[in-house]
Write a structure and sequence with these properties.
InterPro entries: Acyl-CoA_Oxase/DH_mid-dom, Acyl-CoA_Oxase/DH_mid-dom_sf, AcylCo_DH-like_C, AcylCo_DH/oxidase_C, AcylCoA_DH/ox_N, AcylCoA_DH/ox_N_sf, AcylCoA_DH/oxidase_NM_dom_sf
Organism: Nocardia pseudobrasiliensis
Radius of gyration: 21 Å
CATH class of the largest domain: Mainly Alpha
Number of helices: 11
Largest sheet: 4 strands, mixed
Helix content: 40-55%
Family: Belongs to the acyl-CoA dehydrogenase family.
GO molecular function: acyl-CoA dehydrogenase activity; flavin adenine dinucleotide binding
Protein name: Alkylation response protein AidB-like acyl-CoA dehydrogenase
C-alpha cells in the first residue's frame, strides 16, 4: 500500500516490510482460523520489523508512527488475517496505553517492556457494561495501600500469551486504570468458542481478589495520546471488506454460468458496483479521520466513530454478496468467502457497536438531548 498525504520514507519502508510479511500471514489465515490458534510467529515477526517500536510515541521512547501509516498497516494486516490485525491492535492499545497512562509512575517500565517484545492485552470490557468499556461497574476494594478486584472481563484478545493486562475498575466511584500481571487469581472461563476471528482467542477472564498495585495505577485517558484502538477498529473491518471483495471478484470471473463467466451477469455487475463504491466511500471517510488525527483536528474521534460504523456495515454487505456470488462453492468450508463472512460480523459487535454509534450520531444530527431517551 502506497502512503498518500504526504509519504514518509521511513514509514513507507515499514509499510512495505509488513506488506511482504502479510502475504505469508494470508496463506496461514485459514489454518489459524480452523484450529483457533494464536499466530504467535506472526506477532513476533511484526515486533521484529519494528512495528511495536513505531506504535510507541517518541515521547514515550518509541520511534513514533503517523495515523496515516498506522491505518495503512492495520488494513494490510486485516486483509491478510484480521485475527492478527485484531490481536496486534489490542496489544498495542494496551501496551502504549499503559506507557501513557502510567507515565508519571511506571510508564517508562511498561514502555521498555513493550519495546522488549513483552505481550499486552486489553481487559476492559465487562459482561454487564456492554459497550461502555471505559466505564467499569466493578469496584476496586482498598487493601493495604493497594486495591483488589473481583469480577469478569470479556473478549480479551491474546490473553493466553499476555505478560500484562490493562484493567479498569472503580476507585472512589471513578474509572481507574491499572496494569495487572496475570497470576493464579486470574483465570480463563472455559466458554470461549467464537464464530469469527477465531485466532484471536478472545477469552472471558475471572478475577478473584486480584491485587491492583498502587505503583501500576494510571490516570484517565486524555487528549494528545495515540488513539490506537479507535483508529484501528475501522481499519480491521475495511481490511476484511477488501479481502471479501477480492474473493468475490475471483469467484465472479472464474465461475461460469451458461457458458460465460458469472461476471457477465448484469445483476452481478450492478451489485459489485454498489459494493465497490460504498467500500471506497468508507475508505475515504476513514482516511479523512486519519488526516484529522495527524493534524490535531478536534473532530477526528467522531470521524473514526463514523468510519467504524460504515466500515462495519460495508464489510458485512460485501461478505454477504460474496456468498451470493460464490454460490454453493462459496459456502464450503475450504472457501475464504465463508471465513470473510464470519469475520465481518465481529466488527459490528466491537465497542462501540453499530447500534450504539447509530444512536449517538442520530441524536447529534437530530439535536436530541443525550439525557433524554
Amino acid at each position: 500500500m502506497q502512503l498518500t498525504f504526504p509519504p514518509d520514507a521511513a514509514e513507507q519502508q515499514l509499510v512495505d516490510r509488513i506488506t511482504a510479511l502479510a502475504e505469508g500471514f494470508r496463506e496461514q489465515a485459514a489454518y489459524h482460523d480452523e484450529h483457533a490458534e494464536i499466530p504467535t510467529a506472526a506477532l513476533t515477526a511484526l515486533h521484529d520489523v519494528g512495528l511495536d517500536a513505531a506504535a510507541l510515541p517518541r515521547y514515550a521512547g518509541g520511534t513514533g508512527l503517523s495515523y496515516l501509516a498506522f491505518g495503512a498497516i492495520v488494513r494490510i494486516l486485516a486483509r491478510a488475517d484480521p485475527s492478527i490485525a485484531t490481536i496486534w491492535t489490542m496489544h498495542a492499545g494496551a501496551g502504549v496505553g499503559l506507557a501513557e497512562l502510567t507515565r508519571e509512575a511506571a510508564g517508562s517500565f511498561f514502555a521498555d517492556e513493550f519495546l522488549a517484545g513483552k505481550r499486552f492485552a486489553n481487559a476492559l470490557s465487562e459482561p454487564a457494561s456492554g459497550n461502555r468499556f471505559l466505564n467499569p461497574q466493578h469496584e476496586a476494594v482498598p487493601v493495604e495501600g493497594n486495591w483488589t478486584l473481583s469480577g469478569a472481563k470479556r473478549f480479551v484478545s491474546g490473553v493466553e500469551i499476555a505478560d500484562y493486562l490493562l484493567v479498569n475498575a472503580l476507585v472512589d466511584q471513578k474509572p481507574t486504570f491499572f496494569a495487572v500481571v496475570p497470576d493464579e487469581t486470574v483465570s480463563i472461563v472455559p466458554i470461549w468458542d467464537t464464530l469469527g476471528l477465531r485466532a484471536t482467542r478472545s477469552q472471558l477472564l475471572s478475577f478473584d481478589d486480584t491485587v491492583l498495585r498502587a505503583e501500576y495505577r494510571g490516570r484517565a485517558p486524555g487528549q494528545g495520546e495515540f488513539e490506537i484502538i479507535p483508529a484501528g477498529l475501522p481499519a480491521i473491518s475495511l481490511g476484511i471488506a477488501d479481502a471479501a471483495l477480492a474473493a468475490l471478484v475471483e469467484q465472479a470471473t472464474t465461475r461460469e454460468i451458461l457458458g460465460a463467466p458469472l461476471s457477465h451477469q448484469q445483476w452481478v455487475q450492478h451489485e459489485v458496483a454498489d459494493a465497490e463504491i460504498r467500500l471506497a466511500a468508507a475508505h475515504s471517510l476513514y482516511e479523512r479521520g486519519l488526516w484529522e488525527a495527524d493534524n490535531a483536528v478536534p473532530s477526528f474521534f467522531g470521524t473514526f466513530v463514523r468510519a467504524k460504523y460504515l466500515a462495519n456495515k460495508v464489510a458485512v454487505d460485501v461478505a454477504q454478496l460474496g456468498v451470493r456470488i460464490g454460490g454453493g462453492s462459496g459456502y464450503l468450508k475450504r472457501s475464504p468467502i465463508q471465513r470473510h463472512l464470519r469475520d465481518a460480523q465481529a466488527g459490528q459487535l466491537m465497542a462501540y457497536s453499530t447500534e450504539v454509534i447509530a444512536t449517538e450520531v442520530g441524536k447529534q444530527v437530530l439535536g436530541v438531548d443525550a439525557g433524554v431517551s
